[in-house]
C-alpha cells in the first residue's frame, strides 16, 4: 500500500482570512481527491515577529524552526503567495532563504499565486519558478494564478480554476510518489545525496 504523501502548503499572505490561503486549501482538497495525503498549511504571518527577526538558520527557534523542518521533510510543497508590485512579498522570500540549501533538491513544488489583476499572472514564470529553480526543486509544469475577479471574498467562483488545479494535481501526484519512494529507498539503504530530477 502506498504511504500518504506529506504535503505542506506555505502561504505568504500577511493576514487571515486570505484569498491565497483559500487557493492553497482548494489545491490540498483536490490533491486529496487524487491520493492519500497528510496535509498541513503554514501561514507565515502566524509566525509573528519571530520570522523576520530570524537572520540565519542557526538563530531559528521554536515555531520558525518547526515550520522549516516541516517543509524540508515534505514529499510535496505548495508555494502559495500573493503578488505585490509584480513579485512575492519579502517575508515569503525570507522564509525560503532559511530553508536548507539542498533540502528542496528534486522535491516537487506546486506554484500558486493570487493578485489584483491578470497583469501579475506571469509572476509564476518570472519570479516563483526561478526562485525554486535556484533551490533545485522540481516545479510542477502547471502553475496556478488567480486574479481578484476569480473570487467572491475568499470563495473561488471561476470554474476554470478547478480545471487548472485538477490538471496540476494530475501532473504532480505521480512525480511526488515516485520521488518519495526513491527517498525512502535511499534512507533504508543508508544512501546519501540528491535524487535524480525527473525528466
Automatic annotation (TrEMBL):
Residues 6-146 form the NADPH-dependent FMN reductase-like domain. Keywords: Flavoprotein, FMN, Oxidoreductase. InterPro entries: Flavoprotein-like_sf, FMN_Rdtase-like_dom, NAD(P)H-dep_FMN_reductase. Pfam families: FMN_red. This is FMN reductase. It comes from Streptomyces yaizuensis. The lineage of its organism: Bacteria, Bacillati, Actinomycetota, Actinomycetes, Kitasatosporales.
Amino acid at each position: 500500500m502506498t504511504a500518504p504523501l506529506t504535503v505542506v502548503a506555505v502561504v505568504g499572505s500577511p493576514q487571515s482570512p486570505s484569498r491565497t490561503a483559500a487557493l492553497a486549501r482548494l489545491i490540498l482538497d483536490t490533491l486529496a481527491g487524487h491520493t492519500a495525503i497528510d496535509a498541513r498549511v503554514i501561514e507565515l504571518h502566524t509566525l509573528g515577529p519571530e520570522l523576520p527577526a530570524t537572520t540565519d538558520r542557526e538563530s531559528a527557534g521554536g515555531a520558525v524552526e518547526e515550520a522549516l523542518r516541516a517543509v524540508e521533510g515534505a514529499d510535496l510543497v505548495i508555494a502559495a503567495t500573493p503578488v505585490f508590485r509584480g513579485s512575492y512579498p519579502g517575508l515569503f522570500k525570507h522564509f525560503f532563504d532559511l530553508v536548507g540549501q539542498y533540502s528542496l533538491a528534486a522535491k516537487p513544488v506546486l506554484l500558486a499565486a493570487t493578485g489584483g489583476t491578470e497583469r501579475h499572472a506571469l509572476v509564476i514564470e518570472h519570479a516563483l519558478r526561478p526562485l525554486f529553480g535556484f533551490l533545485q526543486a522540481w516545479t510542477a509544469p502547471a502553475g496556478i494564478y488567480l486574479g481578484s475577479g476569480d473570487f467572491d471574498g475568499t470563495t473561488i467562483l471561476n470554474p476554470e480554476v478547478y480545471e487548472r488545479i485538477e490538471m496540476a494535481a494530475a501532473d504532480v501526484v505521480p512525480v511526488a510518489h515516485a520521488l518519495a519512494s526513491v527517498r525512502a529507498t535511499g534512507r533504508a539503504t543508508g544512501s546519501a545525496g540528491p535524487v535524480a530530477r525527473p525528466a
